[in-house]
Amino acid sequence: xxxxxxxxxxxxxxxxxxxxxxxxxxxxxxxxxxxxxxxxxxxxxxxxxxxxxxxxxxxxxxxxxxxxxxxxxxxxxxxxxxxxxxxxxxxxxxxxxxxxxxxxxxxxxxxxxxxxxxxxxxxxxxxxxxxxxxxxxxxxxxxxxxxxxxxxxxxxxxxxxxxxxxxxxxxxxxxxxxxxxxxxxxxxxxxxxxxxxxxxxxxxxxxxxxxxxxxxxxxxxxxxxxxxxxxxxxxxxxxxxxxxxxxxxxxxxxxxxxxxxxxxxxxxxxxxxxxxxxxxxxxxxxxxxxxxxxxxxxxxxxxxxxxxxxxxxxxxxxxxxxx
Length: 323
Hints:
This protein is of the alpha/beta class. 44% of the residues lie in helices and 15% in strands. The chain is globular, with a radius of gyration of 18 Å.
C-alpha cells in the first residue's frame, strides 16, 4: 500500500493515469515498443528501455513535452546526457530549436551524440545542479520554454507510458523495481501501475553514493546528500529541485527504498551482458541489482525491473566486463 494518501486533485494516480493515456496517444507512433523479457535465472521480468530510441526512457518524456509546443520555438534544458539526448532528438522531430546545458562531468559519448542532432550544447563547469541553474537562468532571462528533466507533469506522463505498456503486457504485477533520480520515471510508472494494480509494491532504487530522494523522504523535505560521491549511475545522480512535484509523489508512492553499492551496480551490468547480451548503463544496473538481492521477493510473485537506459561510456563498460 502507498505510504501516504494524495488528494485526488493533486497528482493522484488517477490524475497521472489520465495524463499518461493522453501522452501515449500523442507519442505512441514515435516509440520503440521495447521488449519485456523474463530472466530465467532470477524469474524477473525485464523491461528493456535500454533498447528505446536514443538508448533511454528519456525519449518518452521529451516527446510528451515537446509534442505540445508550437514549431519554431526555442527550448532550453539541462542534462547529464540522456534527457538532453531525448530533448535534442524530439526538438529536431518537432522543428524546435534546442539549447542544452550539460555539466563538465557528463559522459563524453552522450555529449557527442547530442551535438550530432544539431542542438546547441553549452558546457558548464561543475555538476548537474550548476548546469540546471545556468539553463534555467537563461530560459528565464530570455522568456523561453524550460524543459525540466523531471519536474514537469508532461515529462512524467511520458515516462509513465512504460507503466501503460507493462499493464497491457502483464495481467498481474506484484512488484516493480525502478531507479530514482529526480523521480520523474518512478512517479509516472508508479502512478499508472498503482491505479490499475492497487496492491503492487513500488521499490525505489538508488546508488549509495547519490541517494538524494531517499534522504529527502527520510527527512520529510528535499535535502542534498551530505557529500557528493562519484557513481556509475550518472543518469540518476544529482540534487532535486526544492519545489519538485515528484517529491510528494515519491513520498506517497514508494513503499520502500533499496540502496545499491558501486560493486553491486558493476555486477548487474555484467549479468545483463552475460545472460542477455544487453548493454545497460549504471542507472539500469541499480534497479537490476536491487531486484537480484532483494530477500523480500519470492519466485511466485510477478516482479518487474525497469532497465532504464543503455548509454554507458564504452571504455567504462568494457572495463567492467573484463573484471
